[in-house]
Amino acid sequence: MAGRGRGSASGSNGALVAAGAALLCAAAVLLAPAPGAEAAGATYLVGDAAGWTRNVDYGQWLAGKTFHAGDMLVFKYNSTFHDVAWVSKGGYRHCIVSPKDRAPVYRSGYDTVRLPAGTHYFICGVPDHCQAGMKLAVKVY
Ligand SMILES: *[C@@H]1O[C@H](CO)[C@@H](O)[C@H](O)[C@H]1NC(C)=O
Ligand SMILES: [Cu+2]
């Protein structure tokens, strides 16, 4: 009899533990990112207050920054005058948006790109703007 009593007492403790575990699981599910969502990365406004324009030293802007996969770059510019092309290394070096690259070209004036790992190259495709410094090579870890 007494044994049974203890048994049922430990049984209800077990139920409490199980309920607690279920709550913890529910909390973990709520805290976990939605399936398919990447961990939120940092967001960088390219050129800070100057934005994306001519005669900014983007090498200097990059100095001291470390980029990780999933970070975002925001290109802010006047779309009357500029665009953003995500080009190859060659496109970056020679300041050309080659059809061969099939480079994505953005023209909204406020373009956000999510960076995958690797080195990524962005230039302005308007003639002579890349030569005037509108070029950015970002190493992403
Ligand atoms: C872009 O520049 C043009 C010409 O100077 C100007 O009229 C327009 O308001 C500018 N647009 C923005 C979003 O600054
Ligand atoms: Cu430009």
From TrEMBL:
GO terms for cellular component: plasma membrane. The keyword DNA-binding does not apply. Pfam families: Cu_bind_like (PF02298). Residues 42-141 form the Phytocyanin domain. Keywords: Copper, Disulfide bond, Metal-binding, Signal. InterPro entries: BlueCu_1_BS, Cupredoxin, Phytocyanin-like, Phytocyanin_dom. The lineage of its organism: Eukaryota, Viridiplantae, Streptophyta, Embryophyta, Tracheophyta. Residues 1-39 form the signal peptide. It comes from Setaria italica. This is Plantacyanin. GO terms for molecular function: electron transfer activity; metal ion binding. Gene3D superfamilies: Cupredoxins - blue copper proteins (2.60.40.420). PROSITE patterns: COPPER_BLUE, PHYTOCYANIN.
